[in-house]
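In line with agreed milestones, the collection of sequences with tokenised folds has grown. One record among many is set out beneath this paragraph:
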Amino acid sequence: MALASTLHELSTLIESFHPLVVIETVEEERAQRLVGAAAQSLGFSFYEWSIVQGLRIASGRDVGGHAIGTTTEPGGALGHIRALDRVGLYLLKDFGPHLEDPRNARLLREVCQAFTGTRSTIVLTGGHVELPPEVEPHAVYLELQLPDEGELQQVLRTVVESLGESHRLEVDLDDAARAEIASALRGLTLNQARQAVAYAALEDGHFSRDDLSRIVDRKARLIQDSGLLEYLPAADNSFELGGFARLGEWLERAEQGFTPEAAAMKLDPPRGLLLAGVQGCGKSLAAKAIARRWQQPLLKLDAGRLYDKYVGESDRNLRRALALAESMAPAVLWIDEIEKAFSVSGGGDVDGGLSRRIQGHLLTWLQEKRSAVFVVATANDVFSLPPELMRKGRFDEIFFVDLPQPEERRTIFEIHLRNREQDPAGFDLDDLVFASEGMSGAEIEQAVVAGLYRALHAKQPLANGHLLAELDATVPLSRSRREDIDRLRALAADRFVPVA
């Protein structure tokens, strides 16, 4: 269990004479229970501090609800802790901002030095805890894992019992349904789980397995609100893909990895694939089409959202995003333009080693993950990707997406004409295919859109002439960046599998 494992880790840190432990979390309630449980298991006195309540004894021989002396001020609390002669655990809530005062930073440093040989430990909690450089060497960071299914089962029981008493809630849940709902809540904090269960239960006054879809929808909304992942439910995914025959055949085989028969043979679900190739030729569309084909939710990880100005926060964002993705399994995780987050250009120390740490964590996760999260990574500039990202074992396969061939261009025209209420049968597709030689799928789509605007302006129905005029005015990427595309094709010739 996650909490039991974290409790063991915290107790080990305390017993190995670490004077300062930092737990960055928004789940203050869980952190408080964790530290209290550690104090109880070790037989230590347990003190809590907040700027509102001051320092007070939370457990031990002299439990009291009132602040000890004049300890509401941070300096007074640290001074009192330094003067105590008993071994104890001291939980200081939201203390980080008070360390901007040099006096408080110095006091904390002296307390840490005094605690080095006593096993007394200060635990700092808060959403983000930034330590002064002189205090940092005394600290060790402890990650509070998201609630496991045991904790979520307890939340489910508590909320259902509470609502049953206060709202006369009708409950129809057997053990199997409870387990399914608890599993669906994975990836949420305890408070988010409470809210999701209460929302689903109160919507119609009846709580049963049928509410599972409501909980999943609520969870998806919370994931979207986290800002780390974009969420596209399977029901809202209507994207079509033109061509990509070899990719389609590969996906048909890979889909068997999600079946009970594959699990019986101890086969893990497929890991994912890397789509490299020419910009605008359907890599992003392929990620959406894969999720649609398998009827799985699509989660998009935008690398730019990971990076944060605070030390350690970017790494934590990646871990949180991957944990959220695993909590939605089975799902497709789309990492768009992966080279922007995990590029090897500029060395690895320009950003203090942050890119290397993030890259290392992703590589380890790709290698070791066992959850049914299928990763689709897309890359325009494969030359900046680290070689270790492109070896077998990270991804099941690496596909190269080239400029569309004539039959693929025909399909692309048909898709975009139909999507805009135009009958492809009313157009000379052979002329359009010939005129679009060397164009990407995105350039063809834009020509269709621009042709429609041209026709609307002329107050005419869309015709071949409008489309041909737009195609003729387009300078495709294959001409404007011919050298780059030729270099990319040369690299892909004997390394990657063509999608078509």
Q: What stands out?
A: Confidence is low (pLDDT under 50) at residues 346-350. The CA atoms of residues 87 and 293 lie 60 Å apart. DSSP finds 20 helices and 15 strands in the chain. The first strand starts at residue 20 and ends at 24.
